[in-house]
Amino acid sequence: MGGIELSPEELELFLTESTEMVDTMEELLVTLETEGGSEAVAAIFRAAHTLKGGAATAGMENIARLTHALESLLDLVRSGERAVDADLVDALLEAVDVLRRCLAAVKEDGTDESVDVGGLAARLEALAQEPPGGTPGLSGRADGPSGQAAPASQGSTGTAAGEPVQEASRKDGSGKDESGKLARLSGQVAEGERVFRFIVDVEPDAAMPSIRLYQALMVFEEHGRVLQSNPTVKEIEETTADHTRLEALVVTAENPQDVQAALAEVSHLRQVSWEAVGGPSDKPDEGAGRGPAPGPAGAGGAPSRQGAGSSGPGRKPPGSGGDGPAAPSAAPMADTIRVSVRVLDRLMNLVGELVIDRTRLARLGHVDLQLQELQEELELVSGHLSRITAELQDTIMQARMVPLETLFRKFPRMVRDLARRLGKDVRFEILGEDTELDRAVIEQISDPLVHLIRNAVDHGLEPPQDRVAAGKSAQGLVRLSAYHQENNIYIEVADDGRGIDAERVKRTAVARGLLTADEAQQLHPAEALELLFLPGFSTAGQVTDVSGRGVGLDVVKKNIERVNGTVSIQSDPGRGTRFIIRLPLTLAIVQALLVNIRGTMFAVPLDSIVEILLVGGERVRMANGWPMVPVRDQVIPLVNPGDVWGAAFAAAWREDASNPVVVLRSGAGPLALAVDRLIGEQEIVIKTIDGMGGQVPGISGASILGDGSVALILDVTGFTKEVRRLGTAFRGHGGHFEKSA
Amino acid sequence: MATGSVQGAVSGQMQLVVFRLAGELYGVDIQQVREIIRVPEVTRVPRTPDFVEGVINLRGSVIPVLDLRKRFRLPAGEADRERRIVVVEMGEQTLGVIVDAVSEVLRLDQDRIEPPSPYIVNVDSQYITGIARLEDRLIILLDLNKVLSAGEREELERLEEPEQDGRN
Q: Quick count: other Cβ atoms within 10 Å of Cβ A486?
């Protein structure tokens, strides 16, 4: 059942705004628990309120219902009647999760009907009715009275009388099947409340008069309860006809003038009038009798499902209507990106400049010019063109940059839940969240960061008693920081926990058969830590559902390498561990070395090149069936591209001369790649090959060179992996290096 | 009726791009064709099926190019000035197809199209939607989507292992 039918754009807007509200609520909730503060409560309340308003207008009943329950509970917190404890925050955070599910459902099929909010709403209501547990303190009281306590006796929290009926209406939640409700409502005028008949007229030329009336009804609901209305909410929702006049019977504890003033926030209302329907002692059914004929039985009650609910009319502060939270808005990680108008304008100007250059070039073909003049003119145009394209490139890059905050904001909640589950006390610090990074990179590092942060909380930090025993504070610290250095962004995940014991890492690696005891002996402690990134390594003694699910640091490393990043570990036993992720600023442009192999141009990203060598053909040695080249004091395995890509891509290898070799950085140590010719270094723009992305091992994409031809981009990680995979096949014959004798 | 043929503006008519391949005339529905270009420098790509010539730069996009002769297992043609790439759009994917020459764009009445006869053509009949008989010639109607979809996708995805020069 929909409310006002939303256009796709409106739905999109609703989703974006609601997602922001939910994100804001989540962030604030974590803040609330750790730092407390009435400001946070007020801000969460406003967010819930705004969300409720939007959801009710859009006909998203479950969201409206849940946010209503949230609002009621938060109202108690705000007034100090309910203390903030971990149970409360748990329930509120769960509500945030369910709201997310609702929004996901709305995105999927346009309605939140499929999400069951009943249980949670009841739990929130129960929490609201729970007797205030102790003095309003603000931090983690994990063992407080259970939030599941039976819906306790009403009224204990000062809720207005008449609760049972509202309770019932909320239980069925839909507003359907409420025959007999009117009769029950007759007892619903509490002390201090009065009944008024409001008549609202919409301006005759207003675009969507029904919506205005709907909004007016919402205002009434905010300031009281609507006993009856004509048209009813259902009629507004379901009929296409435009209603221009609303008559409503409203119970409120406020002055009718205040309600009338509140209606001013609804635009395009021509006139609002009201009259009192008897005094508080008057039976409302008398008023109902004089009121306009309601629709079918039950319809008249429909508005109350927006939840005149338990929040008594008198408790709302006057200014609470329609104000949004002042929280910063951030773009959700969707397929769309927010670009400032300034950037767009700049792009437009640059494109304009390009058009001018095109015209100038086109003119050159028609005008009779001396060679000298032609040359000068061409120089001018090409100079201008390169300036414009460089600026275009910068601007586009800028448009792709997103602050890390969009990613980081989900972590406090994660750490909080995790710490609570593990019984640890964790202070989580975030630094540099305004550092910007290419959108595509941010998406790729989300999972690795989740993993590293979980690791830090779960394995990095000791249990509180161990910390105290070690002379540390019981509260552990996990710090997530980001900063910009040269052309890279660094993200660090640091903890002040027990650190990593290099010897233990070595023993484990030997036990797992990753290296021999002798090899382990040789390793420097820092090198030993690198073993953690090997596939199949896990030091976690116990498997928890947190980070011991068999997904190890090797996956973290792989994901980071996929975006041309690197990850390293530093650890100080007893003092803590630090993971350092280095990421390129952007994915779309890289510095690369161009090489020619059998007539085909390949671009090798510079950051995966260790060095470039000329190797005398005679210096190749076979070791264990592999061709190797000596480089200073070590020997490096040599591979001919033909071994991986077939004879058509085999580099010529001359026994009697120097051969160009590119030494690639790979997870399994350096690998020397033979090529035919070194062309030079250049900045390349990465393009995907339409329909062939990721299918050719060792090729990650393509780039267009200055002359318009296409170079293939070497995927160093994929290539070295393929070399290893094919390794056994070549072992013993030396591939393309074997002498053809 | 012929799959892949879209009704022209005039009902019962369709527009064909007609090209030559190994001495025969083929026609494809103009709706499947995005443009026709000369053959630029083609960059070979490792470990792709033999009928994949490589990739080209189509105004800033890198698209794969297939050799239709190789696809149909016809004898290899010569690099000729007449050769063209027919750029085809299949859903999200853009592909180039190398043909011997593009001869014309033809408007044809649907009723001149006959069902394919396996005796007339030397191309696998599953790709053929019909034969158009004109006064002086026969045009084989190809459904490029079919030519390039199932089989081709499969083969593009089934990457070749590198040849071992007979050693192993």
A: 7
* Interface-testing mutation among B37, B56, B61, B62, with chain A (most A C-beta atoms within 10 A): B62
Question: What would the mean pLDDT of A667-689 be, rounded to a whole number?
Answer: 88
Q: Which of A312-321, A720-729, B55-64 shows the highest mean pLDDT? A: B55-64
Distances in Å between the Cα of A196 and the Cα atoms of A6, A252, A315 are 32, 8, 19
Residue A690 contacts B where some CB pair is shorter than 8 Å:
yes
Identify the CA nearest to A54 among candidates A332, A336, A324. A324
Q: How far is CA B143 from CA B5, B51, B107, B113, B139, in A?
A: 8, 18, 17, 14, 13
- Does domain B13-156 fall under CATH 2.40.50.180? My reply is yes
Identified catalytic residue from A62, A455, A559, A564: A455
Distances (CA, A) of B166 to A145, A590, B163: 77, 38, 8
Query: B162 and A710 in contact by Cβ < 8 A?
Result: no
Confidence of residue A478 (pLDDT cuts 50, 70, 90): very high
User: Rounded to the nearest 5°, which phi and psi values hold at A692?
Assistant: -125, 15
The answer to whether the bond into A231 is cis (omega within 30° of 0) is: yes
Type and span of the H or E element at B111:
none
ipTM of this predicted structure: 0.82
Distance from CA of B81 to the nearest CA of A (A): 19
Tell me if B162 and A695 make a contact (CB, 8 A cut-off): no
Give the three-class secondary structure for A199: strand
Q: Look at the block and give the residue holding tokens 């989900």.
A: A410
